[in-house]
Fold this sequence. Notes:
Elements lengths: L8 H16 L5 E10 L14 E14 L7 E6 L9 E5 L14 H12 L7 E7 L9 H16 L7 H8 L1
Parallel strand pairs: 3-5
Antiparallel strand pairs: 1-2, 2-5, 3-4
Helix pairs in contact: 2-3
Family: Belongs to the GHMP kinase family. GalK subfamily.
Organism: Hirondellea gigas
GO cellular component, one term: cytosol
Amino acid sequence: MSVADIATVDELLAQAKTKYAEVFKETPTVAGLAPGRVNIIGEHTDYNDGFVFPMALPLYTVVVGALSPDGEGNTIRVLTTNEGADAPRLVEFPVPTTDAPLKPSKEPAWANYFKGVVAKFHGPVRGFKAVIVSSVPLGGGLSSSASLEVASYTFLEALLNSPAASPRAKALCCQ
């Protein structure tokens, strides 16, 4: 693969918007994105209070979506287009509440990364629909899960018109 083969952010965004319109029959209103990364030194020590030297890559995860209409306000629907993700690629789950928090599920495993961000988001969450498109390869040591989590958190901030969390707070939530 050469650099010319890597999809640009604009191309990923266009793919996500097209898939969203195809699946949900509407236009997404917001987007969030985050790059993949590689740790030049300190692999797996960042979450153990060790030093790392990460470098962002020109590979990205993009999340696009919109709030659900009032009649669907208690449901979250998320689709990933990643061929390497386990099935099902379209998931639906209720908006978490104090009495009914989100819980991980065995299948699909990819959705647990997204659910974790929703569960730990710093503000109230409403029902929405979203599509995830990524050029970060899964399982390649390029932090595809971190890219998904940070893109999802950034998406939620924009979607819910929530004040941006500090970079530290966002990183800790996505950890």
